[in-house]
Amino acid sequence: MIQLQHISKWYNVGGKPTFILKDINIKITEGEFVSIMGPSGSGKTTLLNIIGMLDLPSEGSYQFFDQAVYDLREKHRTELYKKNIGFIFQAYHLIDELTVYENIETPLLYQDVKSSERKAMVSDMLDKFNIVGKKDLFPSQLSGGQQQLVGIVRALIAKPKLLLADEPTGNLNSKQGEEIMDLFQKINEEEGVTIVQVTHSEKNADYGHRIINLLDGRVESISEKPLKQV
Amino acid sequence: MLRNYLKVAIRNLWKNKSFSAINIFGLAIGLATCLLIVLYVVDELSYDTYNEKADRIYRVNTDIRFGGGDLHLTVASDPMGPTLKRDYPQVEEYTRMYASSGSKLIRKGAQFIEEPNVAHVDSTFFNVFTLPSLEGNARTALNEPNTVVITASTAQKYFGTTHALNKIIEADKIPYKVTAVIKDIPRNSHFHFDFMFSMDNADYKWGNFLSNNFQTYIVLKEGSDYKAFEKNFKTVVAKYLVPQAKQFMQINSMEEFEKAGNKLEYSLMPLTDIHLRSDRFPELSVNGNIQYVYVFSAVAFIVLLIACINFMNLSTARSANRAKEVGIRKVLGTERKTLVYQFLIESLVTVLIALFLAVCIAFLVLPLFNDVAAKSLSIKELLGKKILPFLIVLPFIVGLLAGAYPALFLSGFKPIAVLKGSASTGFKKSSLRSALVVFQFATSIILIIGTIIVYRQLNYIQNKKLGFNKEQVLIINGTGALGNNVRSFKNEVLNMQGVISGTISGFLPVSNSSRNDNSVSKTPVIDSKNGINMQRWAIDYDYLNTLGMHIVQGRNFSPGYGSDSSAIIINETAAKLLAFDKPVGKKIYIYNDENKPLAFEIIGVVQNFNFESLRQSIGPLYMVLGNSPWLTSFKVQTANISALVSQVQSKWKSMAPGMPFSYRFLDDSFDEMYRGEQRVAKVAITFAILAIVIACLGLFGLVTYAAEQRIKEIGIRKVLGASIGNIVGLLSKDFLLLVALSACIAFPLAWWAMHNWLEDFAFRTNMSWWVFMVAAAIALLIALVTISFQAIKAAMANPVKNLRTE
């Protein structure tokens, strides 16, 4: 599904390049659950953004479902990304002025889904994640865990094939974090959604099938894990 | 502490160069506009205040209604002044000017120069008005006949020096001795004479209370109430006017006269009101209009307010950048009060820089402004004692006005929230901000509508069917100087290539031509009931066809009829007022010079033509064959007009050696009547553009502000798949709604204001709905362009940068 080859990214500071990522080669197959780990500044988030097509590398190639992403025009890349990728952030990044319902609906607006269809899809998701009662609340009226839940629902609403999560539990307490991770596992197993998450926590990383360890912009090690029994 | 503030202020301005530039530039434009208008207004208000007795000098105005005609005159009869001084002890002094006789021919060597700015004045003239002498004593200079007082520039012109005492000036072939040279009359005076001749030389039939030809001024003693004094005029009328009226016009008493709907009233007008508040006739120079002073003052205030609003908006827009500084200062123990001072000082620094720039702009633009407003203002007047205090106080007021809101807003940040980076939340949908935008755009739309309508009205006047053809008519001025040769001059010119026809008549349907009115009646006895006041124009056989006027009934004057000397042509208004079913062939009666009624037979009715400004409806008028040689007009048809003019000029030189040759074109003279409106239109257009530019700068700032406020949201939306178009739409929608709302507010206000302005014109264009639509569309388009620049920038930004959590 995803194939990164010789991905490097650097900034020129005082005429000398400072590498954030250096020669990254990663392959992720459909249905996988991958965790990216590493200390601060190791390039985890940048790598995730590159996978999510939010950022461009300075060098390298990227195959997404056998399509060379960097050969595509901006417009097609946006299409590809809109259809296939959902994003989850550490700070939730819900839109403060919109209700839970409207927040969840937003991605559909940008994919030109019809009004009636949108309504059905959002109601369906609200039902499924058991937050029907919260649909008219604003983000500020929710707890962190609930906000992140809304964030996840929003990311899933357009039925993406790939879910990218940047420290999804970073702002949550351990119990809330555990609930979110369980949810991720469930989505991965039941819906077959590929998940790539960036995390600091060993415990959360263990939910993944594979852990990629980054250090100073390089892949230090990849540890494969046997499938966890449910 | 103050140094620290100033340092931070200047570094902040420097750091955000483009922002500061917009801020300072917008404010500078606003201030410059304000300064120019203040110069203009102060100048307009300063008219005639140079006179030491300005607060005690009054002009005697006359209001007459007789036979359907209303006359509001600036002049009174010749005995009025002396009578008031003799009968009423409150009157300290009086003086009169007699300028109705027109220009004089002054000899300079072998050459004659036509001087229009001449008057005969009473010897008391220089006791009333403060016009200091350079040589001789003006106060006693005109005690004798054949004396003249001239201004310094006139002395320079005729004698090459201001030492012109006792030299001789020959005017209309009469020699006058220069008995004083005065400094040039101040620019802000309602009269500008170059020559002031002794009143004793005025050629006038003295002693007639019913003939009004003298500008008459009285000085009341200190402490006299002029309103109370006006009551005395009733006594004057009863005592002096009624006996004369009985003698000449069969009017037996004032009651009978007034019962017939007539009026004869006198009033006093304070000297300092003359320039701005007199809409009377005839004035000694072009007057201003107090309405324009009000309108321009309001515009100055509004433009300044718009500029201040921009400043507020742009300052708050920058607040996110300043929030951290506020947080740190607060954590370090700064009180809110101190922070408010700091921000106020910053805004004061900005305003001072803007003010400096504004003075520079005003200095550069002033010649242009003078040209447009027909003024000769000087930037030095900014330092005069009237404006300087204003100039000093202005930055403080503007600084406070513009800085107070940002100062209070910024200093109100909670330090912890700010340092955590969530300060900007909670200030997103501010109704104040929306109100400011609505105000700015409503003002701009009103100005755009006003500008379009003024422009359309002027266009309408220019192209209106006037009842005569103003194109290709050459007017030769002063042909009276040719004496009996005027006819042969006309015939000589008619022989030239390209001249179609010509007419000798001082009466033309434009300004700077003769006017004469007279009472007309259907019965041989004219009294106050059946008299109709009409214009009496003396013309010749070729008049109507030369000027392209049309006869709608009857016929034109023709040499083929021997009896045309007692024939008369009336215009349509006159026919209507006389209420004749078929006017042609009817008789009407007109008094001759000896007050005897003469019968005239109506031979034709001429189609109504505009002979006064289009502000007035067309009054009654009649035409008779007569001798009025002042002007000679030619209908021409030639591509090379200048060759023709020089041909005419050489003919003039051979027939009237030494006499000044002067010509004009009828259409130019026509345009001359609307110079005032054209000036106002130009000024209005300039200010409208300025207001819009400033409002757009403000909108630019606001969109920047909005984009900054919503930067996180924009990032999220982009991650969720929003296109650039989606984001631009999102950012623009709110503002465009506000502009639409502004239009709704602006329309009725603009309609009302322009309706009032158009009311002034008897002939006016209509206010089409499209004018309003166009104005709204322009405002919307400008707003859209301004917004999209920032919106696209925000939408193009990489969301990753904005979503990074710190």
TrEMBL record, chain A:
Recorded GO CC terms: membrane protein complex
Gene Ontology molecular-function annotations: ATP binding; ATP hydrolysis activity; transmembrane transporter activity
Keyword Glycosyltransferase: no
Species annotation: Flavisolibacter ginsengisoli DSM 18119
InterPro entries documented for this protein: AAA+_ATPase (IPR003593), ABC_transporter-like_ATP-bd (IPR003439), ABC_transporter-like_CS (IPR017871), MacB-like_ATP-bd (IPR017911), P-loop_NTPase (IPR027417)
Keywords: ATP-binding, Lipoprotein, Nucleotide-binding, Translocase, Transport
Protein name according to UniProt: ABC-type lipoprotein export system, ATPase component
UniProt domain ABC transporter: residue ranges: 2-230
SUPFAM superfamilies per UniProt: P-loop containing nucleoside triphosphate hydrolases (SSF52540)
Signal peptide location: none
Gene3D superfamilies referenced in this protein's UniProt entry, alphabetically: P-loop containing nucleotide triphosphate hydrolases (3.40.50.300)
Family named by the database record: Belongs to the ABC transporter superfamily. Macrolide exporter (TC 3.A.1.122) family.
Highest taxon of the lineage: Bacteria
From TrEMBL, chain B:
GO function term, MF aspect, one: transmembrane transporter activity
Topological category with respect to the lipid bilayer: Multi-pass membrane protein
Keywords of this entry: Cell membrane, Membrane, Transmembrane, Transmembrane helix
The protein's name in its UniProt record: Putative ABC transport system permease protein
Signal peptide residue numbers: none
One Pfam family per UniProt: FtsX
ABC3 transporter permease C-terminal domain residues: 298-412, 686-798
Gene Ontology CC annotations of this record: plasma membrane
Main localization category: membrane
Keyword Ribosomal protein included in the entry's annotation: no
Residue spans crossing the bilayer: 21-42, 292-314, 339-367, 387-413, 434-455, 683-707, 735-754, 769-792
Record-linked InterPro entries: ABC3_permease_C, MacB_PCD, Macrolide_Exporter_MacB
Record domain MacB-like periplasmic core: where: 20-234, 523-610
Record localization: Cell membrane
